[in-house]
Specification:
Blueprint lengths: L13 H11 L4 E7 L2 E6 H17 L7 E5 L4 H12 L3 E5 L5 H10 L4 E4 L2 H10 L8 E4 L13 E3 H14 L3 H7 L6 E6 L9 E5 H15 L6 E3 L7 H14 L2 E4 L6 H8 L3 E3 L2 H16 L3 H22 L6 H21 L7 E4 L6 H9 L4 E5 L9 E2 L12 E2 L4 E4 L4 E5 L6 E2 L3 H7 L6 E9 L5 E6 L4 E2 L5 E2 L1 H9 L4 E7 L6 E7 L1 H10 L7 H5 L2 H18 L10 E6 L19 H7 L1 H9 L3 E9 L5 E12 L6 H5 L1
Parallel strand pairs: 1-11, 3-4, 3-5, 5-6, 6-7, 10-11, 12-13, 13-14, 25-26
Antiparallel strand pairs: 1-2, 8-9, 9-19, 14-15, 15-16, 17-18, 18-20, 20-21, 22-23, 24-25, 26-28, 27-28
């Protein structure tokens, strides 16, 4: 804990906490970055000095209190310091997704009236120069990585190093400049604006305060015993609330070390080298890791395959009880110990999770098999629940009471109640101050009693655990009155390693039909083992053998649904495999990979119509966007397949 006896060091803003960390943890490593294969480290004292220099440089360029600062790029120390430098001057950082195309940035830049931007590299500079004529306020673009920037002479573009030099001059002339600016900052000031994904409408700027970030970080710290000895790998987008909470706010409040990987391609290697103690990933990341493990084991020698399968049976039988602290027999303890020596330990090491104390997942449902796999091999994987508007702070699963069918119990300081149509309403220390320049949306989202309307439908069970069914607005009914929960169905489908994305239709219709995206790696590996040749995604997705593979998965989902009282009538009747992957660049997904269901239904209306008309095939031609901005078309004759419907066990009993 921080030594509060040290005078004149405040703890009520994130920026002031950085300088307090420099005073009490000066030599401790605050952040690392892997560059050209070598890890470089900065202590808290180094970080405080860098923040001062950058803040001084920004001030010299005319950045003043109340202004917003765009931050765009991969997870890099200098970009994290940009948050703190802006906050030190009373400004507000606005991170944007680094893979957003130029057109997507225009709305945020204009809505947030951004004049200054700090970006990672040439790619981001090019995007901003492209949109600059449409962003009247933008006047200064600062880049970190100089590669490829030698011949740029645009008056608005300058190097991070040059800004840092300006800061050095300011601080030499005015040694107390940063202290004076910090004294003007208040705990209720907006500390960051995080834009929502815009699943159904224009993104909204969520204004979060220093106080909310600090209180949430402290709540998490007490709940899962975070300490300054911890390590976290920061690889998720900085524009996402999870990264802002874990990699920025919590690291500042607790003093643990943030590690920035060299690139997205080296994350797993870097993770093994660092051995983080805290880890967060959406379910799709855990799914991809397990898919890779499954593929490797399918190609392993007969002995290794036997060893893996034998001890995984032990893990499934015993591992969950051991993780939850329950009693197990001496025989099972010994068998699990052997499994830990020969299988689970090496597997955790291969995944970079040997030192994990807590691993979190959230943002979507996680499959029971996936959840059980990680916990059974000794990884304390737990679910959490929250929104950008609550700083991801609503529910977590307590140690010893983690359950696959819930998102946990309310966190300290959180109050939950169920509103109309089962909508979850939340009061949280992390609650947004407002939506930026949008009082109407703020008023609509918060009740007179101060509860935030999450938009999620669910209920609290008798043990106090929160269970989420679907988005409240997406819950519909079939023509026979059966409840239709598309996200619930889609998540069940995505629990299979062969299915990457799914979109279900059924509201106001006689039956449920689905679009499927295959998981290319998993299905490709399966095809190779079957001796099935293919030339690419479109060819593989259209194979009759692949249709049979996915039909078996869907029928398993239908079997599960047959046992659900309220959902047995929402079994999937027909499906097709899309000829292309749903893509954020084509507006089919948000940047956080949430399906824009209404947009997809409209874009592929001809396919939806074919599903419900009983057609066996349908021709489709689709325009796509490439990474370099060019457009093209993909066309295919898509097969449509019927699925076996399972009689409800309730009906049979009747």
């Amino acid at each position: 804990m921080l030594d509060s006896s040290i005078p004149n060091l405040r703890e009520d803003t994130l920026s002031s906490l950085i300088f307090k960390n420099a005073a009490v943890r000066g030599t401790k490593t605050a952040i690392r970055e892997k560059d050209l294969g070598i890890w470089q480290s900065w202590s808290w004292a180094n970080v405080a000095e860098e923040v001062k220099l950058l803040a001084g440089g920004l001030a010299a360029k005319g950045y003043v209190r109340g202004k917003n600062l765009a931050i765009i790029g991969d997870n890099r120390p200098r970009l994290y310091w940009s948050f703190a430098a802006s906050q030190s001057l009373g400004g507000v950082p606005v991170p944007l997704y680094q893979d957003a195309i130029a057109d997507e940035m225009i709305y945020v830049f204009n809505d947030a009236e951004i004049e200054f931007a700090i970006v990672e590299d040439q790619e981001q500079v090019d995007k901003l120069l492209e949109i600059m004529p449409q962003c009247d306020k933008l006047r200064c673009i600062i880049y970190d990585d100089p590669r490829g920037m030698r011949h740029y002479d645009h008056p608005a573009v300058m190097a991070y190093e040059d800004v840092r030099e300006l800061g050095s001059k300011i601080l030499n002339e005015q040694p107390n400049f940063i202290d004076d600016e910090l004294s003007k900052c208040h705990t209720d000031d907006v500390s960051v604006i995080l834009y929502t994904s815009g699943t159904t409408s224009k993104p909204k700027g969520v204004c979060l305060t220093h106080k909310s970030c600090i209180e949430v970080a402290k709540g998490d710290m007490g709940f899962d015993n975070y300490t300054d000895e911890g390590e976290i790998l920061s690889y998720l987008p900085m524009a996402w609330v999870g990264d802002h909470l874990f990699s920025y706010a919590q690291s500042i409040v607790t003093g643990f070390t943030v590690n920035c990987p060299e690139s997205s391609e080296t994350v797993m290697i870097d993770m093994r080298e660092i051995g983080p103690t805290y880890y967060f990933a959406p379910p799709r990341v855990f799914e991809n890791l397990l898919t890779q493990v499954t593929i490797r084991m399918e190609d392993a020698s007969r002995f290794k395959k036997w060893l893996y399968e034998a001890f995984m049976k032990v893990a499934r039988r015993t591992g969950l009880d051991i993780m939850d602290g329950k009693k197990v027999s001496l025989k099972n303890k010994l068998l699990y110990g052997l499994g830990n020596m020969f299988v689970y330990g090496p597997l955790r090491n291969n995944l970079g999770m040997s030192h994990i104390k807590v691993a979190y997942t959230g943002g979507a449902a996680i499959g029971p098999d996936l959840y059980s796999f990680y916990r059974s091999i000794g990884i304390n994987l737990k679910q959490l629940y929250g929104q950008t508007e609550t700083l991801a702070y609503v529910c977590k699963q307590p140690n010893g009471n983690a359950r696959i069918d819930s998102v946990g119990t309310p966190m300290p300081g959180v109050d939950i109640k169920v509103g109309d149509k089962g909508e979850i309403l939340v009061k949280s220390p992390g609650l947004l101050k407002e939506y930026y320049k949008n009082p109407e949306a703020t008023k609509e989202s918060i009740t007179p009693e101060g509860f935030f309307k999450t938009g999620d439908a669910g209920f609290i069970d008798q043990d106090g655990h929160l269970k989420i069914i679907d988005r409240a607005k997406d819950v519909g009914v079939l023509n026979d009155g059966t409840m239709f929960a598309p996200q619930f169905l889609e998540n069940k489908l995505k629990f299979f390693p062969f299915i990457k994305e799914a979109v279900c239709f059924g509201d106001g219709r006689d039956a449920v039909c689905a679009f499927i995206n295959i998981e290319m790696d998993a299905v490709g590996n399966w095809a190779e083992r079957q001796g099935l040749g293919y030339s690419g995604y479109v060819d593989l997705a259209g194979k009759s053998e692949v249709y049979a593979l996915l039909q078996d998965c869907i029928e398993q989902v239908n079997q599960d649904l047959a046992n659900e009282d309220t959902l047995s009538g929402s079994q999937i009747k027909r499906f097709l495999i899309l000829h292309k992957e749903l893509d954020a660049d084509d507006d089919e997904l948000t940047r956080t990979r949430k399906v824009r269901r209404d947009f997809v239904a409209q874009k592929y209306e001809v396919l939806v119509k074919a599903l419900y008309e009983g057609s066996n095939a349908c021709f489709i031609e689709t325009q796509v966007k490439f990474e370099d901005g060019r457009t093209g078309t993909i066309s295919a004759d898509l097969a449509i397949s019927d699925v076996k419907m399972i009689h409800s066990t309730q009906n049979l009993a009747a």
